[in-house]
Each structure stands twice: as C-alpha cells, then as structure tokens.
Design brief:
Elements: E1 4-9, H1 14-22, E2 27-32, H2 42-52, E3 56-59, H3 73-94, E4 97-103, H4 126-141, E5 144-150, E6 153-154, H5 161-169, E7 174-178, E8 182-183, E9 186-187, H6 188-204, E10 213-216, E11 223-224, H7 225-235, E12 245-249, H8 269-275, H9 282-296
Parallel strand pairs: 1-2, 1-3, 3-4, 4-5, 5-10, 6-9, 7-12
Antiparallel strand pairs: 8-11
C-alpha cells in the first residue's frame, strides 16, 4: 500500500492524541494543534493544507464544551460548522479523503431504540446544531468522506466525565449523578483504533467510494450517567476514594445551560457490517482505560 500523507487536526484532544499512534502505520502523519492550525480562521486552515498537501485529513478538533457553546455560538459555528465546510471544499477540489467526527447530540433523544445513521437529526442545543451543520456541509460538498458519530467520549487525558468522577470521588463521600439520560460510554482509544481499522480498509480498497458515508462508532451496550459513574468509582483503588454513595438524580435536579438528549444510544450495525469492526461492551473498555490510568499513576 502506498504511504499516504495524513494530517491530523486536533492533536492535543482526547481522540487526536490517540490517533497519532493508531494511524501511524498507515502513512506519514503530520499532527497539528490550535497553535499551528486555527480552525476559526480560513487562511490558517489553507496555510497548513497547502504546506502538508495531505492525502487524508482527519479532523478531530472542534468546539466540544457543550454548555459553553450556548453563550459562544459564534465560535461554535466557526469550529463545528464553517471549518468542516472549508475542509470539505478543499478535499473535493484536491481529491482528498476527509475523516470527521460528529456526535450523538445531533438527535433529540425521543427515540425508543438505538439511533441509526438514517434517522433524522433534530439537535436540542447549540453544540448539536453546529455539529450537524458541519456534517451536512461535508455530505453536500461531494467530497470523499467518513463521518463517525461518537457518544459520551472519555479517556485518560483532557476534561471528561471519567476523570471528573474519579477526582470528585477522591474528595466527596456522596456524588449525585443524573440517571435519566442514556448513552454509550466510548473511550478515545477505542475510537482511534476503530478509525485506523476502517481507514486502512478504505486506503487498501480498489473501490474506496463504496465505503464513504456516515457511521456510528460507540461501545456496545448502554448506560445512564449514574451507571457509568457507579462503575467508574467501583473500579477505583479503595485507597484513592472516599466516595461511598452514588445517588441517582433527575435531569431537572441538575440543570445545565445546554439541553441534552435523554436517549442517545447509537446503533453501530452499519460499521460492523461494512468494516467488520466488533465494538466491545462499554464496561470491558472502561476496565482497560481504568487499568491504563492506574499504571500511569
């Protein structure tokens, strides 16, 4: 397989950091952070693209602070909607494959079964709305693309629910956690490894266009935030936690700036059928992530 030039945007994020290792066998990787490529400025995007001349762009960056986006719509629009449109135009004009990450928050959460890729988007918040606009721009551009919708991303780096629960459990005897929202806790490493597996198949294929499209990528199974938190704390070493009680509460008891879908479980059957990727259960993945963090500490 001819080595491709792969550009990763968002190298310091949860997924971007893991991607650098996972996609390295597939080509010559250039990874950029916000100091090198400012997604809010089109000229900054083109400066890097013209220098790297990538065969593959993996966009793992964006405005991911869900609640802050409600008061920062302009910046969320630039990073989540306008920047992907710029990347898509470049990809179309230059025959580049664009890999992009979306979110379960494009759905309104009224579903009663796991969401399919073909289900209509109906975002409830600025974050979900701007991410959906980015997805639409990519699809409408006609560029070669893989869009992976993610759900409840966490890992050993950055700011995420997993690390927050561990930190709070070390200092509080009781945690109150929402129990009426359901999703699929998914680790950043699993996302990066699945991306690399799918991308490798596309790059080796004689008919890569048969793979292009939108896919759901999330751990198997589902959980509430309360169930996720309870498992996180259960796995913590006893000497590192003082929390003894995880109390379930309703969304109404924990109001946030952004409205979140009550149910955003993703059906990943298309990913399995197309790429043969088996996604493990979220509890098994959490145990691996927990072990990784414990070895670091």
């Amino acid at each position: 397989m001819t080595r491709r030039r792969i550009l990763i945007i968002g190298k310091n994020g949860q997924v971007g950091f893991e991607l650098r290792r996972s996609v390295a066998p597939l080509g010559d990787v250039t990874a950029t952070g916000s100091s090198e490529l400012d997604l809010a400025r089109e000229e900054s995007i083109y400066t890097v693209l013209d220098r790297v001349k990538p065969d593959v762009i993996i966009n793992a960056a964006g405005h991911t602070a869900v609640d802050k986006a409600e008061d920062d719509r302009e910046n969320a629009e630039k990073l989540n909607a306008e920047a992907p449109a710029v990347l898509a135009r470049y990809s179309k004009q230059n025959g580049v494959l664009l890999v992009h990450y979306s979110t379960d928050y494009v759905f309104d959460g009224t579903g009663k079964r796991p969401y399919l890729e073909t289900d209509p988007a109906a975002p409830l918040c600025v974050y979900g709305s701007t991410k959906n606009r980015g997805d639409v721009a990519i699809r409408e551009s006609g560029c070669a693309h893989l869009i992976f919708r993610l759900c409840w991303v966490y890992g050993v780096r950055g700011r995420n629910f997993f690390l927050t629960m561990r930190r709070l459990a070390a200092s509080r005897e009781e945690l109150r956690v929402v129990s009426d929202q359901r999703g699929c806790p998914t680790s950043s490493r699993l996302i990066a490894e699945a991306t690399a597996q799918a991308l490798g198949q596309v790059l080796r294929s004689r008919s890569p266009e048969s793979y292009y499209g939108t896919y759901h990528l999330a751990s198997d199974g589902e959980a509430t935030w309360h169930q996720f938190a309870s498992k996180i704390i259960e796995l913590m070493p006893a000497e590192k936690r003082i929390c003894t009680q995880v109390t379930p509460i309703t969304t109404a008891e924990y109001p946030t700036a952004a409205v979140r879908p009550a149910y955003s479980v993703l059906d990943c059957g298309k990913l399995k059928d197309t790429f043969g990727i088996e996604l493990p259960h979220w509890e098994a993945v959490l145990e691996l992530v927990n072990e990784e963090l414990n070895t670091q500490n």
